[in-house]
Every structure is written in C-alpha cells, then in structure tokens.
C-alpha cells in the first residue's frame, strides 16, 4: 500500500469520526433542550431535632433572609466540617453585630457515598433547621445541578455559592457583597436603600483567582498549564470575553439574577459556570469580577477527563444557544 493510499484512508477515517462526532453533538443538544424545565417536586427539608418536615421555598417567592450560602458536597465527609465551622463562625459573628443580617446555609449532598450526609445533619442539629438546611439529591448529578437545586430553593436576597473544601475564605463574601451593593446604588438611585432593594436588581459577582495566575503557571506541571490555556480559549469562543476566571467556585447573585439564570441553566456538571456567563450576557446582567483569597486544598476532583467533559459541554452549549435549539425563558414571576 502506497503512501498516497494510506493518507487517503486516514483522511476518510478522520472525516467519518468528525461526522460521527458532529451528529452526536447535535443529537445530545436536542436531548437537552428541555433540561431547564425543572418540574420535579420541591424538596422537603428534614429537621433532625423535631423530626418534622419543613417545606422549602422557591426562587420566585419573596426573600425572607438577607443571604443564602449554597454549598455543593460530593463525598466531602473529611473537608466539609472544617469549612462549615469557619462559615458558621463568620455568619454568627456578623449576625451578632448586625441584627438585620439574617442567613441560611444550604448543603446539597450530591449523592455522596461516604458520611457527608451525616456530617451535614450534625450541623443542622447544632444550628437549627432555620439556619442550616440539607438537600439530598439521592444520586450524583453534578456540581452544577447541586448548586442549581440549592439556588432554586433558597430564601436570600443575596445568594452565594461556595465550595465545600474551603479553598476561598468565607469572609471574602463581604467583597462581593459590597461591590454588588455599590453597583445597585448606581443603577437605581431612586430605589432608596440599596440593601433593601437589592433582591430585585439583577447583578452577579464572580470571585476571581486571575491575580494568582502567574504564580500558578510557575508551579503547575506543563501539561496542566497547556490544558488550562486551551480551556480558556474554548471558554472565550463559547461565552465571549469579559471574565478572566469563570471556574472559581465563589460566586454571588442577587435574587433577581439567580431567578433568571438558574431557571434556564441546562449544564449540570463542570461547565455550568460558563453557561452562567453566557446567560448573564444574554440578560444584560452586570458581571463584577473580584479578586479573592484562594488556596489549593488537597483532594481536588478536577482531572484531565474533567477538562474534556467541559469542552464537550461547551460544544453542546454553543450549538444549543446559537442554533436556537435551547430556548431561554424570560419569565419574571
């Protein structure tokens, strides 16, 4: 067999694989076009102290807390207690100083197979179900789905997602909060007290590790830097410019922003952050990017396979929205 024949066969093989991949992406995109229709029954929060069930709210209900913290947890039995202790200490201290500062922590157990559920309910027992609540997904569905569930069933004017490993210090939430309040004040001078009106003004604040990028590039393995640079390029193509760090797990939303974004989000795993950027731009929701304190915590679940899954999901997202297969709901109430 000559070289020309081998090249022709190789090209045919590449063409077949490419066509197969394209067909697969189209089929999967159509399969997910109704993924934002969250028709499941609202979860019931369990109160381990009284053994009573507490009905949970929905994102369209009026806010009854100042802030909600949503923590997705998958097999976090070891790391969750430290992060929760730090979080509760911060929240209690702020509440002591300011009686208008009301809060809740929602832990979403994403189908863990270890003792995450037990750890979470220990904190409900200690701090009462009005302050700490647990949502059980039953089976692993992905970080994006866990956060979506917590967001849709929270009570805060402000809603903060943060990781269970404590990689970002919880007191940095004040940085995001203050910037959101500042933007709200400039956007709605006639709204009076911006802290009172904040629930109704769509604004998003992203915690960012971009200021740490040079140090990270110097200490990471070359192949991890290569993968991350490639990932950033795909993010730019999928969601456009404007956000340097889409993947930091520390993001704050006003209730109005969360209502628009999390009732539309379709991606359930690692790439949901990029979809949040795309949807924010669609709704013309301001995105503030703020540097936060961040440290590498052992036990990361991100792997090269995770990067490939992100690229796959961004391909679905780009086709879904740009081809009009995924429709965006504009429901306000």
Description:
45% of the residues lie in helices and 14% in strands. It has 333 residues and is an alpha/beta fold. The strands form two sheets. The protein has a seven-stranded mixed beta sheet with strand order 5-4-3-6-8-7-9, with helices on both faces. Strand 3, helix 2 (80-97) and strand 4 (103-109) form a beta-alpha-beta unit. Helix 8 runs parallel beside helix 11 (304-322). The N and C termini lie far apart (68 Å). The model has no long low-confidence stretch (mean pLDDT 83).
Task: Please supply descriptive tags for the structure shown above.
333 residues, alpha/beta, 7-stranded mixed sheet, two-stranded antiparallel sheet, 11 helices, globular
Radius of gyration: 21 Å
Overall morphology: globular
Strand tally, please?
9
Number of H/I helices: 11
Mean pLDDT: 83
Class from secondary-structure proportions: alpha/beta
Query: What's the main sheet like?
Result: 7 strands, mixed
What percent of residues adopt helix (DSSP H or I)?
40-55%
